[in-house]
Each structure stands twice: as C-alpha cells, then as structure tokens.
Design brief:
Distance between the termini: 7 Å
Bound molecules: uridine-diphosphate-2(N-acetylglucosaminyl) butyric acid
CATH topology of the largest domain: UDP-n-acetylglucosamine1-carboxyvinyl-transferase, Chain
Number of helices: 14
Shape: globular
Structural class: alpha+beta
CATH superfamily of the largest domain: Enolpyruvate transferase domain
CATH architecture of the largest domain: Alpha-beta prism
CATH class of the largest domain: Alpha Beta
Radius of gyration: 21 Å
Number of strands: 23
Length: about 425
C-alpha cells in the first residue's frame, strides 16, 4: 500500500503559516554551486524530495554535501565526474541543469534526460540552441544529452519562447564563456532572477534578470558564497488558495507578495480579502466566491503551476469560470479526479469550463503530478467527508511538510505511511 494523505474536509483554515524556500530556485542554485572554486553555503532550501535527489547527484559526482535545518554546505572542489547516472536524473526534470555546469567544468557533460512527463511534451530545443550559440557541440542520443564544450564564447541568443529551462541553462553556460552574452526573450520568473543573484554573489556579472534582456559578462572566476533562496511562489499561492477555499483567515509569512500579484488580483476579483505587509500575506474569505476567468501565462502572468489548485477553488465559486492553459499542452489530467469529488468541469482542448457546485464530497483520488496533488489537497480541504489522496510521492517532491503546515492551520490532515497500513 502506498503513502496517502487522509483529509477530513470542511474546516476553515486559521492562523499563521511560514513559507519554505523555492523549489524551482533551489533546483537551479544547487547545481550552480558546483561552478565555484570554493565551498558555498545555501540557506532557506526546502527539505523536499527534489533537493534530496540533487544531494545524491552532487555526492555521486564527487562533491561534499551536508544538508541540515534547510542549510546546505556544498564543497565542489572534489567533483570529478561529468556523467550523472540515469536513475537519479530520471527523478527530476531539472537534472539537465547539470549539463552546462559540468560542461563548463570538464569541457564535456553526459546527462540522461528525464523520460515522459505527466503534463505533456517538454522539448529542450531552446536549451540546445543556447548552448550551441555559445560554442558547444550538443546532441541527444539514446535519451542522453551529450555536450562538448572545449571553448565557449559569448553570444547573442534569441529564445523563441521565454523558457525557464533554456534561460537557466544558457545563463549557467554563459558565465563560463569568454566574452559577453545577451539572452533576448528570456524567462522572467522569480527563480530565474534568484539564480542570477546567486551567480552574482559568486562573482559573476549578470544584469537584467527579471527583464527579457539578460546580459552576462563571461569568464569571471566564481567563488563560493553564502546565499539564501527566495520563498516558494507556488507554495505561497497554494496556501492562499487553500485559505480562500475554506473560508479561512490565514496569515502567510516569509513570502514575497509582489511575486503573487496575478493570483492576488484573481482572488480579489472573486471576493476574497487579500492584504499584505512586508513579507506577510493575509487571506480572509467568507466562502462566498465569484466565478472568474483565468489564463496561464509566463511571469508576471498567472502561473501554470497554480492552475490546478485554482481549479479546485473555482469548483465552488458561484457561476461559470474558465481556465485556459497556454503553457503546457496537457495539464488537465487532474480534472477527472476533481469530478470524482462532484466538481462540474468540462475540458475543451486547452480550456476547462468550471460550473460552480454547492459542495464537493470526499473521495479516494490520485495526484497525477505535483501540482495536481496541490489541487487534490485544496479540494479535499473544502469537501464534505473524507478524501484519501494517493500519489503522495509527487506532492513530497515539492511541498515541505505540507501535512504539518495544514494541521497547524487547523485542518484535519493525516499522512499514512504505506507500511503502516
Ligand atoms: N518549450 C519548448 N522548447 C524548449 C523549452 C520549452 O517548446 O526548449 C516549451 C515547453 O514545451 C512548455 C513551455 O515552453 O510548453 C514552458 O517551458 P519552460 O522551459 O519554461 O518550463 P520548464 O523550465 O521545463 C519550469 C518549471 C515548471 C514550470 C515551468 C513554467 C522548473 C524546474 N520547472 O519548467 O515547474 O511549470 O517552468 O513556468 O523550474 C512545477 O514546479 O510543478 C513545474 C512543472
């Protein structure tokens, strides 16, 4: 029997909850630490499965890694391999951030690419284009990304779309290239900016991260630094949605409110109170929610990673809402699970039409991917009765102590371990 979350729904969330460090920032910053000539200390890392996989990966490559109390010490000086193993790379998409790093260190990298994904095709053509422009030879054979980078030079790279992965990989390679580079149409997500800030703290010179033109001065020696990762934008959003959905009154601490503007605007439109002060966001709702239309977009638009838990909230809003997914071709698999709980949702291509119902009813459901897991949690918190969520492995990849945090807000959430049943 696999691990499950068992949630008895219907209790308004109340109290304070602290946000952990950002997953998508962490998975870029940890590999980047290998580029330093001296050890790094990275603080505010989330204690999640993806971070543990990266620790195994760094140790396998020869690095010294110590991780406790959300702080990681990385000693990159002993790294002596450029070909991480398939069984670790397969566990997470971001393992390919090691390719530009290892190619920068060794002139070559061989990184197995993760296989199929539950949210649709995730091509890497823009990463390949960026690396090739910088002088690397790149090929994908038998599912492995081979990079040969004997001499890297600065370049101007125009990305066809503002891809997070391509922007990260190009930036990680450009810091090792001789001469200046410019990335046009780069991703502006907070985690891309956080990676640039981390690299700058190591001695790199990157300007313009957070805009669509990023300038990189290459070839500067990089040293270890002490750096704290930004709070997780998506965990913050998930908590905001859970608070609003349960008619709660929650103060979210350790967040960056400006990262949440697209969601805050939608919640206000739905009739939810959203306030903020410094690193705190206050969500209050009386449970009377109005339908809205949502379209996912790159930052600062509405994040695709909040599309699923937003859908759970909309299932009980009065009226008819729509969600249009523009980033991924197939990110509505969780809809069938919500329907098992009584949601009224119809999907037409990339648009889901959600007609609000009076209530959801608890049911056994499965998290089909990480953010689908967040959708199941929000739905379970609203639902009458008991919901058992399986597929917990996905949720634990990205949410630190989600069960404990929700219990701290008064929810009835129990984590059942497979071997306990
Ligand atoms: N795309 C291409 N070619 C490329 C790269 C991307 O066509 O070379 C397309 C993809 O197919 C996709 C879109 O562009 O349709 C967005 O891809 P992007 O490269 O921006 O996404 P990513 O780097 O693979 C990161 C996050 C995702 C998040 C997306 C969008 C990390 C580790 N992952 O993925 O996070 O959904 O950006 O914001 O940063 C999650 O946390 O649950 C998650 C999936």
């Amino acid at each position: 029997m696999q691990d499950k979350l068992v949630i008895h729904g219907g209790r308004p969330l109340r109290g304070e909850v602290a946000i952990s460090g950002g997953k998508n920032a962490a998975v870029a910053i940890i590999p980047a630490a290998l580029l330093a000539h001296t050890p790094c200390t990275i603080e505010n890392l989330p204690d999640i499965e993806d971070v543990h996989v990266l620790i195994d990966m760094l140790r396998w490559l020869g690095a010294g890694v110590d991780f406790r109390n959300n702080v990681m010490e990385v000693d990159p000086t002993t790294v002596d391999k450029y070909d991480p193993p398939e069984e670790l790379c397969n566990c997470m998409r971001a393992s390919y951030y090691l390719a530009p790093v290892l190619a920068g260190l060794f002139g070559r990298a061989e990184v197995p690419l993760p296989g199929g994904c539950n949210i649709g095709a995730r091509p890497i053509d823009q990463t390949i284009k960026g690396m090739q422009a910088l002088g690397a030879e790149v090929k994908v054979e038998r599912g492995v990304l081979f990079v040969s980078a004997e001499s890297l030079h600065g370049a101007e790279i125009y990305l066809d779309m503002p891809s997070v992965g391509a922007t990260v990989n190009t930036m990680l390679m450009a810091v090792n290239a001789s001469g200046n580079s410019v990335i046009y149409n780069g991703a502006k997500e907070p985690h891309v900016v956080d990676l640039a800030n981390f690299l700058n703290s190591m001695g790199a010179r990157i300007k313009g991260a957070g805009t669509d033109m990023i300038r990189i001065v290459g070839g500067r020696p990089l040293h270890g630094s002490n750096y704290a990762v930004i709070p997780d934008q998506i965990e913050t959003g998930t908590m905001m949605l859970a608070a609003a959905a349960t008619g709660g009154n929650v103060t979210i601490t350790g967040a960056i409110p400006t990262h949440m503007e697209a969601l805050s605007a939608k919640l206000l439109e739905m009739g939810v109170f959203v306030g903020d002060e410094d690193d705190r966001i206050i969500i209050r709702s009386d449970g009377n929610l109005r339908a809205v239309n949502v379209k996912t977009q790159v930052y600062p638009g509405f994040p695709t990673d909040l599309q699923q838990p937003m859908a759970s909230l909309l299932t009980i809003a009065s009226g008819s809402s729509t969600i249009t997914e523009t980033i991924y071709e197939s990110r509505f698999r969780y809809v069938e699970e919500l329907k098992r709980m009584g949601a009224d949702i119809r999907v037409f291509g990339r648009t889901a039409v959600i007609d609000g119902v009076d209530r959801l009813i608890g049911a056994p459901v499965t998290a089909t991917d990480l953010r689908a897991g967040a959708a199941m949690i929000v739905a379970a918190l609203i639902a009458q009765g008991t919901t058992e969520i399986s597929g917990l492995g996905y949720i634990m990849r990205g949410y630190e102590d989600i069960d404990k945090k929700l219990r701290g807000l008064g929810a009835s959430v129990e984590r059942i371990y497979g071997d306990e049943r």
